[in-house]
Amino acid sequence: MLTTFLKAARGTIGAIRFAGRFGRRRLAINFAVILVNGVVQVMGVASIAPFLAVASSKGSVPLLGKMPVVGAWLASLAHRDLLITMGSVTIFGLFFANFLMWLTERMRLRYGAFLIQALREGLMANYCARPYGYYLATNSSVLLKRLTLDIFQFVNGVLVPSLEIISRLVVLILLLVLLLLVAPGITLLVAALCGLIYGGSLALLNLRGRRLGHQMSAASRTMLQTAQQFFGAIKAILLHGKAQYFAGQFLGASATWTGCSAQAGLLGNLPRYLLEPVAYGILVSVVLVYVANGNEMATMLPKLSILALAGYKMFPSFQAIFGQAMNVLSSVYSIKEVADCVPQDATTISPRQLPVHFAKSLQLDGVVFSYPGAMAPVIQGLSMDFPKYTKTGIIGPTGCGKSTLVDLILGLHSPSGGRILVDGAPISAENITSWRALVGYVPQDIYLLDDTIAANIALGIPEEKRDLRKLRQVADAAHILAFVENELPQGFETMVGERGVRLSGGQRQRIGIARALYHGPEILVLDEATSALDAATEKDVMDAIYELSGQITMIMIAHRRSSLDRCDRIIDLNQNVSSASISALSNS
To answer: Residue 337's closest CA among 151, 120, 206?
Structure first.
C-alpha cells in the first residue's frame, strides 16, 4: 500500500515541478487559494455548532462566552434575534465556503487550460527547431499524439488531478482536526476506516490502473496512425477494396481505448459504494447507543450536526482523492512523453543569423553523408561546383544519393564530413537560416494545402501580408497566371481541395514553381520535378523553368538525361564511379 501511495505522490510532485516551469506565479496563486479555501471550508462547517447550540437552548449559551467582544454583543440579543443572527451567519458562511470552492476549481481549470497552451507552444518550438533528419526517423503519428493527446492527458490526467488532490487533502486534514476536537473517538474510527478502504483499494488497483493507461496510450497512437494512413492513401485503398481493413484497425483501437476509459472510471468510483453506507451506519449506531443510555439528544445535536456536515464534505473528498490518484497512476506515463520534448522555456529565441552572399558559386568540398545507423555512407567524398546563373543537371540511377544531395544543398542535412561552401564561406549553424532563404525548391510531389491558390503560392504568409503583384508575377513566370485569372471564377482565391485534388498534375507543379519563386530565391533546386508528368505537360513545365535562365541559378535532378537537354552541363552520379572522377558532361 505504501509503495502505491509513493508512486502516486511521485507522479503528483513530478507533475507540479514540471508545471512550475510555466506560469510559476499562477501556480503559487493556486496554492494560496487552495489553503484559504481549506480554512474557509472548516469555518463553514464549524459555524453550524453555535447556531444549533442557540436553537437547542432557551437560556444562556456557554459557547458565546468564549467569543470575546462579539460574544458579549450576541449575548445581549433576545433569543429570537440571536437565532436569526446566528442562522444568517451560518448560511452566509456556507455560501461563502461553496463560492470559494467553486473559485478554487475555476482557477485550477483555467490554469490547466493555460498550461495546455504553454506546453503546445513549447512543443511546437521544439518541433520547429528539430533537424530534418528527426522527422525522417520519427513517425508523424507519434509527433501528433504528443502535441494533442499526451499534453492534454498530462494536464487533465496528472496535473489538474494533482492540484485537486492537494486541495481536497487540505480541506480533509483541517476537517479532521476540527472533528478530533469535537468527537475524537468517532473521528479516529471513521478516518481509519476510510484510510483502510481507500488505501487498500488504491494498492489493489494500482497495477490495473497503470496498465489501462498504457493501453489507452497505445490505442491512441494506433488510431492516429491508422487514420493518417487511411486518408493519405485513400485512392489506392478504395481501388483495391481495402477500406474495411483500415476501418477495422481504427475501430479495434477505438474499442480498446473506450473500454479502458470506461474501466478506469469504474475503478475510480468503486470504494464509494462500500464506504458511504458503512460510515453513516457508524454514525447512526452512535446516536442509537447515546439515546439508549438515556442521554438528552439536545446536548448531542450540535456535535452530531458537525459530524454529519463534515462527513457530507469529507466523503466526497476521500472519493475525489482516490479517483484522482487513479487518474494520476494511469496517466503518469504522459509526464515523460511531454517533459522529454518540451523545452524549459516555451519561447525559443533563434540565434542571430550571419548573412550569406552568393555572388560566384556554390561548392561541395569532399562531402560525406551517412544516415544514423546506416552501414555505409550514402555520399562519399563528393566534390562539385555550381557557378552562379548556370543550369546544372544531375542524373544517376535510383539509390545513388540524388535526393540526399538535394537535402544537403537545401541545408536540411549537415554533412558528416567535408564542407559546403558559398563563395568560399562554409554553411554552418550560424548562417543556415540565411542560406535557406536564398534557395527555392520544387519537389516531384507538390504538397498543397486545402486552401486558396494564393495561400499555396505564398506559403506561410498571412493573407493581409500577401503581395498580389508578386503573386501575379511568379504565377506568370510559372505559366499558370492565364489559367488562374481566365478559367477560375475566383482567381487566386479559388480553393484547391485537399492536396490539390481539384487541379491537374501539371497545374500543381506550376503552383510549386510559383511557390519556390515567390520568396525571391537565388538558387532554384528541382528534384524530379517533372518525372510524374506526361511528355506534353513536362515540356510546358520545363519551358516555364528554362525561361528563368540568366536570372537564377538552377540545379535539376532527373532520372532521364533527355529531361536536362537544355542545361549548361550534366553531372552523372554513377554509383560505380568514384566521386573523384565525377565530371561535368557537356551537352555538345
So the answer is: 151
Closest by Cα among 45, 42, 55 to 86 = 55
Rounded to the nearest 5 degrees, what angle is found at the Cα of 385, between the Cα atoms of 383 and 388? 160
Q: Residue 407: in which H helix or E strand, if any?
A: helix 402-410
- pLDDT at residue 436 tops 80: yes
Candidates 235, 191, 162; CA nearest to 14 is 162
Q: Are strands 361-369 and 379-387 parallel, antiparallel or unpaired?
A: antiparallel
Rounded to whole angstroms, the Cα distance separating 336 from 332 reads 8
Q: Answer positive or negative: Cα dihedral of 73, 74, 76, 81.
A: positive
Mean pLDDT of 38-67: 63
- As a whole number of angstroms, the distance between CA 474 and CA 458 comes to 10
Task: Give residue-wise pLDDT tens across range 131-147.
Answer: 888 887 777 878 888 88
Apex 104 CA angle, 102 and 109, nearest 5:
95
**Separation between Cα atoms, residue 418 and residue 368, nearest integer Å:** 6
Mean pLDDT is lowest, of 69-73, 191-195, 232-236, 490-494, for 69-73
pTM score of the predicted model? 0.66
Asked if the model's pLDDT at residue 384 lies above 80, the reply is: yes
Distance CA 552, CA 382 (A): 24
Distance of CA 434 to CAs 11, 127, 430, 558, Å? 44, 19, 9, 27
CA contacts within 13 A on the Cβ side of 178: 29
3-state secondary structure (DSSP) of residue 247: helix
